[in-house]
Amino acid sequence: MKPCGHSETDSVKDSAYRRILSPVGSLQGVGKVTARELQNRGVQTVCDLLYVLPRSYQDRTKFVPIHELSSGQTALIKGTILKLRRVRSRYREILEMLIGDEYGIISARWMGAPRYLFRFTKGKKIILFGRFRISVKIPETYHPEIIEDGDEHEIGGLMPVYPEIGGISQRRIRRIVMDAVKRFTQGLQDPLPARIRQTRQLPELGKAIGEVHFPVESRPEDLRIRRAPAQRRLIFDEFFMLQLTLALKRTKASREKGIAFGIQGVEELYRCLPFQLTVSQTRVIHEITSDMNRPFPMNRLLQGDVGSGKTVVALIAAWVAVRNGYQVAFMAPTQLLAEQHYLSTLELTRKMNLKAALLTSGLGTHADDVRDGVRQGDIDMLIGTHALIQESVTFHGLGLVIIDEQHRFGVVQRAILRHKGISPDVLSMTATPIPRSLGLTLYGDLDISVIDELPPGRKPIQTRLFHERDRDKVYAVLREEIKKGRQAYMVYPLIEESEKMELKDATQMAEELRAVLPDLHIALIHGRMPLDQREGIMEAFKAGHIDILVSTTVIEVGIDIPNATIMVIENAERFGLSQIHQLRGRIGRGIYPSKCLLLASYRKTTEASRRLRVIEKTTDGFKIAEQDLAIRGPGEFLGLRQSGFHQFRVANLMSDAEILSEAREEAFRLAERDPELAHRTYSLLRQIYRSSQREADQLVDTA
Quick one: CA dihedral 277, 281, 282, 286, positive or negative? Predict the structure, then answer.
C-alpha cells in the first residue's frame, strides 16, 4: 500500500500520508550533496527512502569474548587499545591496532592508515564490529567498523545493511532512515482493511515499516528468508494493490454489454479440419466459445507451448465471429510473424470459408484495396501488425480481436485496436509458457486457457550441446540425417557479418556450407527478403527440394514442416531460453525422432552456461519458463519493458508466490463485495487506488 509517487495535489487526504511525501531533504543529516546522491538512486521523498529496504542485517545484540571468535565470524567486540603502529607493506602503509580484553588479543588493520584513526591512543576503550579470521598467532580483522560515543544506537540489536547509495556510508544511511521512521511513521493511518490484517496476521503499516528497518520483535532467521511479519506485510501490500487493480478492472469489464455470439455448428466444423484436434484443444475451444456465447466481452488468454495448436483454436473462434456477421482483427507484433500467420493459415481459412487478408506497412498501394475491403465488410479477417491500429483502418463490424504474443504490445496499442469495435471479444495468445506467479501478476484480469498437450505422434526432441571444435561432428550428424531423407534448419543470430560481434553470419555460413556439403541443396532465408521470395523458398523447402535451410530467427514461429527433423543453432549462448525453445519447436512436428544441436562459443557467461544446461535437459516449456524467470527476472523474461509490467520494489515473484496468492485472494474477495470501494472503512484505500489510477491513465495518455 505504498503511497510513493502520488503528488501533493492528490486526493489522498490523510495528513500522515501527505507528510510522508515530504522531500527527502527535509530529513536530519540530508544536505544538498546527500540529497543529490539519494535522488540519483530514485529516492525523491521520505516515502521513497522508507521503501529502500535493508538487504541484510548484522547481529549486534551481544559482545563476543575474543577467545570465542571463530574464523569467518562477524562479531561485535570491546576491549582496550594495547598498541598502535604503522606497518609498511610493499604497496601502501597499514595502521594496526592491537586490542585486548581479559581473554585475549586481536589485530585490527586498516589499509592506507586513515588519518581519523590517529585520534585513538593506547589505553583507550574501543568497540569494533567486523569479520574475523583466525591466523597462526592471533585473530585478525581488516577495516572493522568503530562504534564511538554517541553511536549507542549502532549496537544492542539487529542493524540494517542497505544497498549501496553513492558515497553515503551505512552509518549515515541508518541515521537518516531512523529519523524518517521516528518522525513519519507515527500515527500513519493504515489503508489495508483490519479484517484482512487480522485474517493474514499482518502488523499495521507504520509498525511494519519501523520493524523492517530496525527489528525488535523479528527473529534473525525469519528476516534472512524475508518471512518476518513486517516483511510479509510490505510484500503483501505490493501484491495486494496490483491485484486489487486487476480485480476491479475485471469486475468493471464483466458489467459491460458485449456480443452474445451463437456457437451452433462448431463441432460440425471439426470434421472439416484436415487433422484431429487434441483433447486439450477441444477443451479450450469449449472455454472460448462459452465465453463468446455470453452477453459480456470476452477477455481470455490462450497459452500453449510451441506447436500445441493455438492458431487453429483462434481460427475456430474467428469462424464463430464471422458466422455471426462480424469481422476479426488478428494482430501480430512483427511483419514477419503477421506474414507467417497469413501464409500458414491460408489453406485452412479457405476451407473454413473465411475471407482473410494481410495488412502490413510493406504492402504499398495494395493496402488501400485491403482497407476498402475491411471498411465495406468484404474481408472477414484482417491479419496484420501495428498497421491495424492506424486511423485509416475502419472495420465494418469488428466482433473479435486476436492478439498474438500480447506482452509485446503496449497497453495503448491493445486499447486502440479494441476500440475499433463496440465491446468486441478479445482473445490473446502467447507461445511463451508463463509461470503461474507471473501469469497472476501480468494477466490477473484475464481468464486463462492452457493447451497442455501436443498433437499425437510427436516424438521428443533430443538436444545436445557442442562447441566449435565439434563442428565436424555436427556436420556429420547433419549429413547422416539428410541421407535418411530428412531436412534441416541452421539458425544464425545475424544476417550479415558484424564487425562488433564475433557471431556466425547467415549469409557467409550459407556459402561455407555449400563448400563443405557440395552435394546438398542449401538455401538461405531471412527477414530482409521480399515476401514473395520468402514464400517461394518456404514452398520449395516444404516440397522437399531443399535439404538445409539456413535462416535467421525468421523461422521462430509459424512454420510447420514435418520432414524437418534436425536443427543447428549457432552461437546458442547468444539466445534466451525461451527463444531457443521457440526455435526448437520448428522440428519434432512429424513422426520421426528429431535432434536440436546447440553450437556454442567457449567464452560463455555463467548465465549463458546455465541457460544451455537447462535447455539441454528438458523440453517442458513451463519448466524452461520457470528457470528463465529465475535467471533473468520478469522484465527481461518478457522481452520488452513497454508491456506495462509492474516492477516490484519489495516483492519477488519467484520466492513470494505464496504471499501473491494470499493477496490475490483477498483483493478479489474485496472487489466482489464492494466493487466501488464505497464503504467508509475503505476511504483511504479508495483515495490511494484512484490516485494510482490517475497516474496510470496519464502514462497511457502520454505513451
Answer: negative
